[in-house]
Amino acid sequence: MTVQLSGLWLSSPKIPIHFIQCPASPSLDPKLSRTTALSATASLSSPPPTIRIVGGKTPMWRDNENVDGAVEDEADWVEMDADLCYWTRALRPVQWYPGHIAKTEKKLKEQLKLMDVVIEVRDARIPLSTTHPQMDLWLGNRRRILVLNREDMISTADRNAWAMYFSKQGTKVVFSNGQLGMGTMKLGRLAKSLASGVNVKRRAKGLLPRPVRAGIVGYPNVGKSSLINRLLKRRMCPAAPRPGVTRELKWVRFGKDLELLDSPGILPMRISDQAAAIKLAICDDIGERSYDVADVAVILVQMLAKLPTVGMKALQNRYKVDVDGQCGKIFIEKVALRLFNGDIQQAAFRVLSDFRKGKFGWVALERPPR
Prior knowledge:
By secondary structure, the protein is α/β, with parallel strands linked by helices. 38% of the residues lie in helices and 12% in strands. A six-stranded mixed β-sheet has the order 5-4-3-6-8-7, sandwiched between helices. Strands 1-2 form a two-stranded antiparallel ribbon. A hairpin with a 2-residue loop joins strand 1 and strand 2.
């Protein structure tokens, strides 16, 4: 049979024991890792003939027996960012810019000029990776509400950390769960209150009051349409757990006082930060055709193994496999052999799907920078 992984083909009558060489990790200078972890970006040149995915410091497989006392300090997350940048260097760049995004982006920027308030929706697991690099430029001084959706998938400590971070920036933050409707009513009241001055000015000019206009923007599959449907308490906008469902701008009325603009997910034409792109792939916030499922699953395993709230032991217990090495690819391979007759793609998809469904508990993949 033949197995493909990111352009590398290996032919063998059986699934090989090590289908990709996992080299020893180079050690990083702690001083350098602190200064470069948050700014380093992956090279977008063609990948070398062999894939090397394990890097940074030697992965520390942690148990999750005493997670209540675990402390995720700044050094842990800086080290994680540094490792993630290293792991992505040899992979094929993740890029996704379908035609409907290009067509609607221009229309969206024109509509934003008419907005009284803009509601930007991000994935609470990766708030920094799900913001468009040009969003601040587009919005200017326009009033903004930041919604961190999928709050049910992160811990209270994560929510508090992000709330404090954005509060210091003067940004209004609402945590929500678009599937269950948590936070939606608060969002509606906040949007109306922030834009209340619009009709005060209109009355002063002798004009009749009008509904507040709120545009809802954000990356694909972060839950924009689900939030609108929950606000309206009926299905007015198409929504599904995959990127690219909404393809047209659509106005909907919420009561007599608020009009909402549902928009397609927007992405930059070129994603230069490949560490962020991998997080988008892990959280299903980018089209599946843009990445190799097996590569992304391997990185997810290595990230979860380093988090004290999960740890390698939790992964081993869930899939009933024993891994004594330091390579995520070996773990995916063993899951494939045990559960899917050696099908690596199915094993990788299972691990990603379990993460996306919250099977590993409350797991954020980002913490606020300091």
